Amino acid sequence: MPEQPERPDLGLDLLRCKWRVDEATSPGTPAARLAGVRRENTEILAVIITAGRGWPGHRLVGERAAHAAALIAVETPDLAFQDRVLPLLNEAVRAGDADAKDLALLTDRNFVRHRRPQMFGTQYLPGQHGLTLYPCIAPGELDWRRQALGLEPHAEYDARIRGGHTLLAPPEPGLRTALEPGAL
Fold it and tell me: Could you tell me which residues come within 8 angstroms of residue 75 by beta carbon, excluding any fewer than 6 positions away?
């Protein structure tokens, strides 16, 4: 049985943020509403990081809430904030306090937003003929990097993405990525 998190109240705040995004992505909701929710969620995560003096990991907020924090960071419209929290999540993963799958997702989203090739093959672009994998650094070593983080081979991940993807909001105009909720 998992231990009780140190700050379940902060965990509940993070889960509420996820629920707000889920609600704002329902059909017919204006895009401006979702953008506003993502900005507000970024502010909430920033306060939680400051209050907890680092990444809100499993010990502080629980596994589900730590994952919600990672999704907030992935979806934030604030690239500078994403740049600041990526090393915090990396440190938490190294300490065994966060999920490496979340780190892969945030790393790739951050690299894509900086228009750099991704590391772990989690980001796709929609096109006329379906999804296209966003370019990767050293594609021949992709599975090795994924395995180092405990991720499944890319071919398995790719099959799941293509089998039923959900598009997240574009990190910036003209660039869209597809991710299956909980795929990593």
Answer: 21, 38, 41, 168, 169
Token pair 């740049």 is at which residue? 83
Spatial distance between the Cα atoms of 82 and 74, rounded to a whole number of angstroms: 7
Cross-strand bridge partners of residue 127: 130
Of the candidates 48, 46, 40, 50, the residue with the CA atom closest to the CA atom of residue 20: 40
pLDDT attached to residue 113: 97
Question: What is the CB-side half-sphere exposure of residue 16 using CA atoms within 13 A?
Answer: 10
Host H or E run for residue 125: strand 124-127
At 2, is the pLDDT very low, low, confident or very high (cuts 50, 70, 90)? low
Global pTM? 0.85
- CA of 64: how far to CAs of 48, 115, 126, 141, 150, in Å? 15, 30, 29, 30, 18
User: Tokens 């945030």 — which residue?
Assistant: 106
Tokens of 50: 């400051």
Q: What are phi and psi of 75, to 5 degrees?
A: -95, 0
CA–CA dist 33, 81 (Å, integer): 20
Give pLDDT tens digits for 27-70. 988 999 999 999 999 999 999 999 878 999 999 999 999 999 99
Question: In one letter, which amino acid is 161?
Answer: I
The two three-digit tokens of residue 81, written as one number? 């904030």
